[in-house]
From TrEMBL, chain A:
Protein transport is among the record's keywords: yes
GO molecular function: clathrin adaptor activity
Subcellular locations according to the entry: Cell membrane; Membrane, Coated pit
Keyword terms, alphabetized: Cell membrane, Coated pit, Endocytosis, Membrane, Protein transport, Transport
GO annotation terms (biological process): clathrin-dependent endocytosis; habituation; intracellular protein transport; psychomotor behavior
GO cellular component: AP-2 adaptor complex
Keyword hit for Protein transport: yes
AP complex mu/sigma subunit domain: residues covered: 6-145
InterPro entries: AP_complex_ssu, AP_mu_sigma_su, APS2, Clathrin_sm-chain_CS, Longin-like_dom_sf
Family named by the database record: Belongs to the adaptor complexes small subunit family.
Protein's UniProt name: AP complex subunit sigma
Subunit record text: Adaptor protein complex 2 (AP-2) is a heterotetramer composed of two large adaptins (alpha-type subunit AP2A1 or AP2A2 and beta-type subunit AP2B1), a medium adaptin (mu-type subunit AP2M1) and a small adaptin (sigma-type subunit AP2S1). Interacts with CCDC32; the interaction is direct and mediates association of CCDC32 with adaptor protein complex 2 (AP-2).
Topology term for the membrane: Peripheral membrane protein
Automatic annotation (TrEMBL), chain B:
Organism: Astyanax mexicanus
Coiled-coil residue spans: none
Main location: membrane
Top-level taxon of the source organism: Eukaryota
Name used for this protein in its record: AP-1 complex subunit gamma
Record PANTHER family: ADAPTIN, ALPHA/GAMMA/EPSILON
Length: 146, 694
């Protein structure tokens, strides 16, 4: 298996419904389903008393909760936790700006646009573009092509 | 066939379903409609249909029948159709599907498309799900794009190259020259991609490592510009200029500086600068500082720089943000052996983290605390560790208990402290300690002869207050059996003694025998203790005799065997009972992990009697038993098979005739077979405890 730094990115709500699943590593469909369930189980029992990092199989998960949604990034154990935590926040701020005060329903009804945002900011299992201005400019341009 | 609805409408309908069954019904209907639409191959609304299918897929339903549609849409000339087609490819196709090969050609064409957005779609998809064959086919295209003039394309191409190198490391050679030239770009995104690409190339191939070491000065300069440049709004996060790029560069510097003095020297100043000047009030700054610390500790840095790094970690420990405390301890754990003195300075804060509410923080704090225990701080550290033991989460108790035992053994300031500490652990967490704790503690107590009185009083008190902790119960029973007379005497220097009668003691031991909480091992200890007391007390021998005979018909075989033997001692060998059950159990260790307990007797008679009880961990077949330098008369052993795991004992009584007791030494040779192999072991006893002889 090729080794990437980010294994997958998940956005799940508290009930366990997937709002986005981006995989940067090869998994079978049932493996993916199992991973989704495991991540949900591990992350939803934690609260403000816990750190934002969880050891998960032989990786680790950096996650953050925004309202009813959990944004989870699964990375290598040697990766810098804080940098990825900032990465999540960067991503969420872009979503917020793009959807004008984003809420869960925005992500549901425009799911393919959310993938576009992900693909602008992350690629090949790495953080790709970190400038929010640049990403938003690009997204607006793509929108005009629709 | 119902007309297919638009995407938004379908999502609304699915969300409106009140049960899982209803949802499934809706989705089945929709999928049937979508399938029909796919077959029709009409061009209107194709992207909508695939989008609907992708939504259904996200909910967890199968969607593989959409794979060919993805291939078709990717080949379309309309951007909106291409875009959904590529998204579908990333979601539904992976290396294992044959259909993925079909899109290679489309990707190749799109990589040279006039619109950068189409190029970007192709790059993205290749970087996401490109198989090894696809990568091999398209690598030259990617290499060409790395030299393109468009920075938007360059940054995507750089990461696509990273994916290719991960799939086929040999292709790395193709990208090395371009990677190098990308470092002179001003565009942050391109730089970021270039640094990641170089990192990947260096990690895969040590030759690349040598080559890119020459770029260290260039990287240092880029970092310097980032750190000292003014406010740059585009990449600014909480006052730090592009922390993500800084982190990646620091990581690359770490790989380049590792095990290389020249490279490490070249980055020394920069690291000191970043470490001192980065504002860590927000997470972004802390992320950069943390990566700096990791780099400093991994390369060949000067000692001053290392101390600076450890101090940063120490500052992190005081941070309000739990995340930062956690990562700090993770790093401190890695360096506690090599930079022990530096880490010791932060011991107080680390110990405070034992009280954190997150279990993973607690665990880190425990490991660090145990590593920091020394002869100088043992008393204060042990107080904290024992406090921690009483409140820690159950999954950490066993680890904490064994860590405490190790620390106590290495640094105990006195025997009494050592015994107290072990007792405290047994009271708090007796169920989580390892099996060897009981015999180890017995050995320790035996050796601390001045403390026998103190110990037996303490253990008696523990026993009468609570008999749940089996390890504690076992040690207490043994101790009372051995030193019961000291208990009954009612005097003690070290501790205010309780006035204890013989009945009290027998009550306590019988409670253990009868309680349903006692394990068979504990009952064995209790019964043996009661038996031993028959020689130390005067008034209640009959009570003991009756207890022993009751257990002669006990269901538990082990207990029954003991009781029967003891009964025999009462009946047939009553004249020897006194001597067999007298003082001092000497515990010797054999190489095979068996334990030889010598129960020595010998008061006022010429003949010294020795009873040997074997407690073994493995199944042992006992062949014979030899004593040297005394006249001996061996009785038959009570059995010749000792079951494993300390579940049983074999007793063999030997009578010695011996005149010169001052010089008695005993060499015991044990021949046995364990798990099919014949073994031999020998141990020598040079001195016998003096109370045994009159």
């Amino acid at each position: 298996m090729t080794c990437t730094k980010i294994r997958f990115i998940l956005i799940q709500n508290r009930a366990g419904k997937t709002r986005l699943a981006k995989w940067y590593m090869q998994f079978d469909d049932d493996e993916k389903q199992k991973l989704i369930e495991e991540v949900h189980a591990v992350v939803t029992v934690r609260d403000a008393k816990h750190t934002n990092f969880v050891e998960f199989r032989n990786f680790k998960i950096i996650y953050r909760r925004y309202a009813g949604l959990y944004f989870c990034i699964c990375v290598d154990v040697t990766d810098n936790n804080l940098a990825y935590l900032e990465g999540i926040h960067n991503f969420v701020e872009v979503l917020n700006e793009y959807f004008h005060n984003v809420c869960e329903l925005d992500l549901v009804f425009n799911f393919y646009k959310v993938y576009t945002v992900v693909d602008e900011m992350f690629l090949a299992g790495e953080i790709r573009e970190t400038s929010q201005t640049k990403v938003l400019k690009q997204l607006l341009m793509l929108q005009s092509l629709e | 066939m119902s007309p297919s609805v638009c995407l938004q409408e379908m999502i609304r309908v699915i969300r409106g379903a009140r049960t899982q069954g209803e949802e499934r019904g809706v989705i089945q209907r929709e999928c049937a409609a979508i399938r029909a639409q796919f077959r029709q191959a009409d061009s209107g609304g194709r992207s909508h249909n695939l989008a609907k299918l992708l939504y259904v897929h996200m909910l967890g339903y199968p969607a593989h029948f959409g794979q060919m549609e993805c291939v078709r849409l990717i080949a379309s000339s309309k951007y909106s159709e291409k875009r959904i087609g590529y998204l579908g490819a990333m979601m539904l196709l992976d290396e294992k599907q044959d259909a993925s090969l079909l899109i290679t050609n489309s990707i190749k064409n799109d990589l040279s498309h006039s619109s950068q957005h189409v190029q970007s779609l192709a790059l993205c998809t290749l970087a996401c799900m490109g198989s090894a064959e696809m990568c091999r086919d398209l690598a030259p295209e990617i290499e060409r794009l790395l030299k393109a003039s468009n920075s938007y394309i360059k940054k995507k191409a750089a990461l696509c190259a990273v994916h290719i190198v991960r799939k086929i490391p040999e292709l790395g050679e193709m990208f090395t020259p371009s990677a190098h030239s990308l470092l002179s770009e001003k565009n942050h995104g391109v730089l970021h991609g270039a640094v990641i690409l170089i990192t990947e190339l260096c990690e895969r191939n040590p030759d690349n490592l040598k080559q890119f070491r020459k770029s260290v000065p260039e990287l240092v300069q880029i970092m310097k510009n980032l750190v000292t440049s003014g406010y740059s709004p585009e990449h600014n996060v909480a006052g730090i200029s592009d922390p993500f790029l800084q982190v990646r560069i620091l990581r690359l510097l770490r790989i380049l500086g590792r095990n290389n003095d020249a490279a490490s020297d070249a980055m020394n100043d920069l690291l000191a600068q970043v470490a001192t000047n980065t504002d860590s009030s927000k997470t972004a700054g802390s992320a950069v500082l943390y990566e700096t610390v990791l780099t400093i500790m991994d390369i060949r840095s000067e000692s001053g720089l290392r101390v600076l790094a450890v101090n940063i970690l120490g500052r992190f420990l005081l941070n309000n943000d739990r995340n930062i405390r956690y990562i700090s301890m993770t790093s401190l754990q890695k360096i506690v052996q090599t930079d022990h003195t530096a880490v010791q300075r932060h011991r107080g804060t680390i110990v405070d983290c034992l009280k954190d509410q997150d279990a993973s923080v607690k665990r880190r704090a425990l490991e660090l605390s145990l590593a920091l225990v020394s002869a100088a701080n043992i008393r204060s550290m042990m107080k904290e560790l024992l406090l921690f033991l009483s409140t820690c989460p159950p999954e950490l108790r066993s680890h904490a208990a064994s860590g405490i035992f190790n620390a106590a053994e290495r640094y105990a300031p006195s025997q009494r402290w050592h015994i107290d500490t072990i007792l405290h652990v047994l009271v708090t967490a007796g169920g989580d300690v390892r099996d060897e704790t009981v015999p180890n503690l017995i050995q320790l107590i035996t050796a601390a002869s001045e403390l026998h009185c103190y110990t037996v009083h303490k253990l008696y008190r523990a026993l009468i207050s609570d008999i749940v902790q089996q390890s504690l119960v076992q040690v207490a029973c043994w101790c009372i059996g051995e030193y019961g007379d000291l208990l009954l005497k009612g005097e003690c220097e070290e501790i205010t003694p309780m006035q204890v009668t013989e009945d009290d003691v027998l009550d306590a031991l019988e409670t253990v025998l009868q309680s349903h909480m006692s394990t068979p091992t504990s009952r064995g200890f209790a019964l043996t203790a009661i038996m031993k007391l028959s020689t130390r007390i005067t008034n209640n021998v009959d009570r003991i005799r009756s207890v022993v005979s009751i257990y002669g018909s006990c269901i538990d075989v082990e207990l029954q065997q003991r009781a029967v033997e003891y009964n025999a001692l009462f009946k047939k060998y009553d004249h020897m009972r006194y001597f067999t059950m007298s003082y001092c159990t000497v515990i010797l260790e054999f190489g095979c992990r068996s334990r030889l307990s010598l129960v020595l007797g010998g008061r006022g008679l010429k003949a010294e009697h020795v009873s040997i009880i074997f407690d073994c961990k493995d199944n042992v077949y006992l062949y014979w038993f030899l004593l040297q330098s005394v006249q001996l008369q061996m009785k038959a052993p009570s059995g010749d098979l000792i079951p494993a795991q300390g579940c049983g004992t074999v007793t063999q009584t030997v009578l010695l005739s011996y005149t010169n007791k001052a010089n008695l030494k005993m060499r015991v040779r044990l021949s046995y077979s364990s798990q099919g192999t014949a073994c031999q072991d020998m141990v020598q006893i040079d001195s016998f405890p003096s109370p045994a002889w009159s």
